[in-house]
Write a structure and sequence with these properties.
Blueprint (H helix, E strand, L loop, with lengths): L3 E2 L3 H9 L6 H10 L4 E2 L6
Parallel strand pairs: 1-2
Length: 45
């Protein structure tokens, strides 16, 4: 079973802006893009 995570928007933006692919925020973004975990999102938009 894949882990469920809630990722703050600031982490996503930092992952896009970082130049270090080994940084924690870049690794979280890579996990999101590769579907390494299940997204938990709010139902309100």
């Amino acid at each position: 079973m894949k882990p469920r995570v809630v990722v703050d928007t600031n982490v996503v933006v930092a992952g896009l802006l970082t130049s270090d692919p080994a940084s924690p925020v870049a690794r979280v973004l890579e996990g999101m893009l590769s579907a390494a975990f299940v997204f938990a999102m709010s139902g309100r938009f």
